[in-house]
């Protein structure tokens, strides 16, 4: 019998289920705690319909990293701002339940008590480097917890759909634009 089979496994299926259940309970509790304690802003930021100031801090760090390579470095600040406004408009058209879930995800990422353990980023979003944000995205994309993988997919879809609504980003990916009718 091979030597590695004699040792007990680190995590059984039951253990994985327990970790997943605990992580889900932790995220739900953190989101509820943020909304009840007032840590979660209830008012949108100036000039936005849905996005709050806490969301903007996180997204202003995230969006340039996600759009990097799809637009010139000099055009990135303008593209980031345009993407945030498009994202805000898209969120305003979500169903109330989907909007609530999205804002809970943003709350979890904004609160230091949940951001650190879940992302590995212990400093504020303003102090994170692009490499640290790429690490966080990679960590969530390849996580063993489906909740974190779903969070990554949601962030990716929200930002990329909002970014690629802008014609300035189309040439880089080879999209000629919609056909003329």
Automatic annotation (TrEMBL):
Q: Domain of life, per the record?
A: Bacteria
Which named protein is this?
Twin-arginine translocation pathway signal protein
Q: What InterPro entries does the record point to? A: TAT_signal (IPR006311)
Q: What species is given as this protein's source?
A: Pseudomonas helleri
